[in-house]
Amino acid sequence: MERVKSYVCGEWVRGSEAAEPLRNPTTEEVIGECAAEGIDYAACLEYARRKGGPVLRGMSFAARGRILERMSKITHELRDELIELAVRNGGNTRADAKFDIDGASHTLATYARIGEGLGDRTFVVDGEIEQLGRSPRFVGGHIAVPLTGAAVHINAFNFPAWGVAEKAAVALLAGMPVVTRPATSTALVAARLVEALVSVEALPAGALSFIAGGRAASLLDPLSSQDVVAFTGSRTTGEAVRGRTNVLRESVRINVEADSLNAAVLGPDAGAAGATYDLFVRDTVHEMTQKAGQKCTATRRIFVPAALLERAQEDLAAGLRAVTVGDPARRDVSMGPLVSAEQLASVREGIELLQRTCATVHDGSEHGELLGVEAGKGYFIAPVLLIAAAAREANIVHEHEVFGPVATLMPYNGDPAEAACYVRLGNGGLVSSVYTDDREFARAMVFALAPHHGRVYLGSARVAEQAPGPGTVLPLLVHGGPGHAGGGEELGGPRGLAFYLQRVAIEGDRPMVEKILGVS
Ligand code: NAP
């Protein structure tokens, strides 16, 4: 039995004997294990701070970018092996796995280019130098410098490669060493990726540490005020991270990426035919079923003008009927299982909860068999589309994230104000999408949704052939959202660096300030 090791203080360690099994969610077979105890978190953090931090801070952005470029290439070279592991340990179809792994190498490559663009500097100059005194002699300006602690990254199970890479890319480029911890259930992909990076010495010593298994909460206790935590996971775990006593005492900087009741809104102008309508149907079916709906950006709520409801219902159900569920290793399967027995139980409970308020439009379990799956095995659930007659009365639909291939359709009266009002019942989201070619409708929706979201996706005929869909997080755009979505923000090109940097105002005489900031 392979025990996933942790990489701490420059060595691979096995952890203690107590172990948590890792399963293949298609067969339920145990394919590995993570140690549950036995890693010295304090020593791991100290090694990162003392060994990795100074080396990274001494490098220019361009030099840090070259590390990311190498990491991107190694991730890409490992693609086939990681895909195979993601199919076995994550229940990913090959397409799901590529989404995760190619997303990882793409994000690393994007930040490598950003590093190249930032050039020979080791810190960021933020804005202009301002005159502060009566004469031009007394001035002030701002710089942003890397914090001197470690960046702790705690990730969710659904993106084991991208989760490691997207966080590491930004932290390393900013100049902070990383301690990364994947979710236990799908740790094999992240472990293999880090192993490959370490084996070719792609990073300076101490720049990347890896924790497999164990109680993630304990990793928060040795943190100091110069460390940061970027957390991705459920809203409830995010609350626990924020409320950890040591985190509060040390004012540890925290970024929380949590769950979200992402909405899709069909504009009345899109009608029930044409490129924009087709894009709406295609995107919605894809966002419900990619990675078996286990995506923080998956569409959970669908708002359609009342006059188009019946047609949309039929077309979405037809799209879902075409989804083939089964062994994700098979090329004729488009949706694999959920990741674990716990997720399956939670999704089933969630569907029952929603069904107390909603009717069922489509239940995939009534159509077609599981392909290539031994009877009674695996954590499978078929896509489910529900409908709520009155969005305003369907509170549970706006509050409860069912982390599987499940969404609820609701009518609105065609007015953007009403659609936006219903979307906002989700109390803050990662992304919502609007399908329209009507610029006034789009404009009204953007400004009504913007304060409540990290991203608004506008699907129209003009982008139908190239837009990747609302569920794709792109490194140049910010990712995160207020309220239910955790209140965090990641990525966004160079904007993402701010989380790992301390902004400081410098005031003094002009020649001295200019010299220090490297501007004139
Ligand atoms: P989770 O149960 O909240 O776990 C997330 C991570 O936190 C895991 O690594 C977990 O470790 C760790 N953890 C568990 N208890 C902890 C504690 N008390 N303190 C610190 N860390 C703790 O979430 P999940 O089931 O892996 O992922 C699904 C959820 O993540 C969904 O709600 C989804 O919407 C959300 N998500 C959000 C985003 C985003 O970017 N906003 C992206 C992906 C997923 P163990 O695995 O060892 O329990």
Bound ions, cofactors and other small molecules, one mention each? NADP nicotinamide-adenine-dinucleotide phosphate
Strand composition percent: 15-25%
Shape: globular
Strand segment tally: 22
List the strand order in the largest sheet: 15-16-17-14-13-18-19
CATH topology of the largest domain: the name is: Aldehyde Dehydrogenase, Chain A, domain 1
The level of helicity is: 25-40%
Low-pLDDT sequence parts:
none
Q: How many domain modules? A: 2
The helix tally amounts to 15
Radius of gyration: 24 Å
By secondary-structure content and strand pairing, the structural class works out as alpha/beta
Can you walk me through this structure?
By secondary structure, the protein is of the alpha/beta class. It has two domains: 2-258 and 489-517, 3-Layer(aba) Sandwich (Aldehyde Dehydrogenase, Chain A, domain 1); 262-474, Aldehyde Dehydrogenase, Chain A, domain 2 (3-Layer(aba) Sandwich). The chain is 36% helix and 22% strand. The strands form six sheets. A seven-stranded mixed sheet has the order 15-16-17-14-13-18-19, with helices on both faces. The protein has a five-stranded parallel sheet with strand order 10-9-8-11-12, with helices on both faces. Strands 1-5-4 form a three-stranded mixed sheet. Strand 8 (151-154), helix 5 and strand 9 form a beta-alpha-beta unit. Helix 2 (61-77) runs antiparallel to helix 4, helix 9 (275-289) packs across helix 10 and helix 13 (416-423) runs parallel beside helix 14. The longest helix has 25 residues, at 94-118. The protein is globular and about 70 Å long. It starts with a strand and ends with a helix. The model has no long low-confidence stretch (mean pLDDT 95).
